[in-house]
Specification:
By secondary structure, the chain is an alpha/beta fold. The chain contains 10 helices and 14 strands. The chain folds into 2 domains: 150 residues, Rossmann fold; 119 residues, Riboflavin kinase-like (Elongation Factor Tu (Ef-tu), domain 3), CATH 2.40.30.30. Strand 2, helix 1 and strand 3 form a beta-alpha-beta unit. The mean pLDDT is 95.
């Protein structure tokens, strides 16, 4: 798969393309359905057109939490036999393209066919619709993919994650929810109570519900079982900002500044404010026992 990553006016291609386009945040089952339909057409090259950063970040002028970052999307796209991943740098100029300017961009990169959902919108403020596209391209419109009477969407996945329903999120993603981050220095409070943690700078990733989780962490190309806490540490060392802290089972290495992958497997419980440090330690021991039992399943 060849990757194009540039501003829209710098992307060049002369081979006929069948594409699907969108944000593809999370690359859930609905997105996967679109890609698989693109791959059915044998008379053109196959491509996916997406944007980075997420348009909401530019339009709202503030960070926007996503299920996947650019690197994640590329890795997920590469699991399909696509010829091209076209990643447009989403900037103010691109956001202001009118309908005809956007269509001319698609024509300039030799798009012949689009595979899209029925609610697809494009151009400035989403004023372009399927009827406009049909004037210039072959358009294959797919029906919504539905789960529990609700359209599968990135928002739907986020709804399950914020409820701590990892199982339903996994069904919609067709994989466990995973994020990446960098291990940073913390206050080393966990070390003092027998539970040293790796503090994770998780960037703009969307975090599941606050609480304790059984996770797996990939460090230096090796996977370990671990216990994660998402929250504000209400018992000891309260933080206004949410933290993601990982206690890795049977592990004693210096991994500061390492990039790690965290895979969320099981939600254990909410985050509580305990009456004392000793009460917290008692609960942490119970959490650890639960995680160890889950590793054997």
């Amino acid at each position: 798969m060849i990757i194009f990553y540039n501003t829209y006016d710098k992307i060049e291609n002369t081979e006929d393309l069948t594409i699907t386009m969108g944000n593809f945040d999370g690359l859930h089952l609905g997105h996967q359905q679109l890609i698989n339909r693109v791959l059915r057409y044998k008379d053109t090259k196959h491509a996916i057109l997406t944007f980075d950063p997420h348009p909401s970040e530019i339009l709202r002028k503030k960070p926007f939490r996503t299920l996947t970052q650019k690197r994640d999307k590329i890795e997920l796209f590469s699991q399909y036999p696509l010829d091209y991943a076209i990643i447009v740098k989403f900037d103010e100029a691109f956001s202001k393209l009118n309908v005809m300017e956007f269509i001319n961009f698609l024509k300039s990169i030799s798009v012949k066919r689009l595979v899209i959902g029925r609610d697809a919108r494009f151009a400035y403020r989403g004023i372009g619709d399927i009827n406009e596209l049909k004037k210039y391209f072959v358009v294959d419109v797919l029906d919504d993919l539905v789960y529990n009477h609700t359209r599968v969407s990135t928002t739907y996945v986020k709804d399950f994650l914020i409820q701590g329903d990892l199982g339903s999120a996994r069904k919609l993603l067709n994989r466990h929810y995973q994020i990446y981050g960098t291990v940073m220095h913390g206050h080393k409070i966990g070390r003092g109570i027998g539970y040293p943690t790796a503090n994770i700078d998780f960037g703009n990733y969307y975090l599941p519900r606050m609480g304790v989780y059984y996770v797996k962490i990939l460090v230096n190309n090796k996977t370990y079982h671990a216990m994660a806490n998402i929250g504000n540490n209400p018992t000891i060392n309260f933080s206004e900002a949410r933290r993601l802290e990982i206690f890795i089972l049977d592990f004693d290495q210096d991994i500061y500044d390492k990039r790690v992958a965290i895979t969320f497997l099981h939600y254990l419980r909410p985050e509580y404010r305990f009456p004392s440090k000793d009460a917290l330690i008692v609960q942490l021991k119970k959490d650890e026992q639960m995680v160890r039992s889950l590793t054997k399943l």
